[in-house]
Amino acid sequence: MPTETHPQGPAIAEQTLLVWNGRLKMRVKVAGNGAPLLYLHPSAGLAWDPFLSYLAQRYTVYAPEFPGTSVGDPYAIHSIHNLADVVLAYEELVRSLGLHDPVVVGQSFGGMLAAELAATFPDLFSS
């Protein structure tokens, strides 16, 4: 798993998972040590910033890139047809990562997605 270090933050590992019956490739950045936290970014894309470094001081932050915003698979969005598809893909991602009761945090579009995930799969998240 490749890692990168930011001057004012933790080492960030990156992994790619195939989800949704192998139709969707999702890149996930991981950093920190502690209880799992799923961070869902705004529609503009994922950028590791001081906020995520702050969260990584207390949590193990899992920050997946929304399909279609990743440089690794820019056409992945074509597998998604509606919000229900997105929710199912992220539910499978959480299970594939082996996360147990992660905290879920989202900004903007990521916040809406976090609310949908928590409402649809309440047993999957701690808060």
Automatic annotation (TrEMBL):
Family matches, as Gene3D superfamilies: alpha/beta hydrolase
InterPro entries per the UniProt record, alphabetical: AB_hydrolase_1, AB_hydrolase_fold, AB_hydrolase_sf
GO molecular-function terms, A-Z: hydrolase activity
Domain AB hydrolase-1: 40-118
UniProt keyword annotation of Hydrolase present: yes
PANTHER family, sorted: MONOACYLGLYCEROL LIPASE
Protein name: Alpha/beta fold hydrolase
